[in-house]
Amino acid sequence: MARPRTPLLDRARIGATALRLVDEQGDFSVPQIARELGVRTASVYHHVDGRAGVIELLREHVGAAIDPATLETTPWDAALESWARSYRAAFAAHPRTIPLLTVSPVRAPRVLALYERACGVLLDAGFAASEVIPVIVAVENVVLGSALDLAAPETMWEVADPADTPRLAAAVAHAGPHRADTAFELSLAGVMERVRGMRG
């Protein structure tokens, strides 16, 4: 019998299937991935190290949309801001992956390489080694929080009777159509101002 021209199963198909399931329902199971692909669960385990391995595939899929060229921008602070915007866009497309990824250590080589470049940008800019990870995590807090905010309803406060909460009702009415984008820029600007100040 001739072999199929394309393999029935590979890491790319497993990752893409897991990502679709997470986008649809917020989670996945390895048996569910196997059912979706029409293979046995054991076959999936031949390609990934269980659930943790699938989570790393999710990280690779989402991380592939982050433009590494942003970290080649100069000066360093422009690079960090550009990276943050690309990072946010990547996760805004798949916000339901965030709770899964934030509780699992980063192991994917391609994603680690991106962090390596970000570390290099900060170290080359004169930051102390002890400052690098706090800066990166601070930017990530803004990015991931904002990506989740983009998935939220445009109006998060349902004011049934403005007379009960008049100041809140007025603030909501004046928030504008791009509340999440405005809040992201405000948060990023605040973090970047503090980070610039760290260089003395």
TrEMBL record:
Transmembrane segments: none annotated. Signal peptide: none annotated. Gene3D superfamilies: Tetracycline Repressor, domain 2. Residues 73-191 form the Tetracycline repressor TetR C-terminal domain. Keywords: DNA-binding, Transcription, Transcription regulation. SUPFAM superfamilies: Homeodomain-like, Tetracyclin repressor-like, C-terminal domain. Pfam families: TetR_C_1. This is TetR/AcrR family transcriptional regulator C-terminal domain-containing protein. It comes from Streptomyces catenulae. The lineage of its organism: Bacteria, Bacillati, Actinomycetota, Actinomycetes, Kitasatosporales.
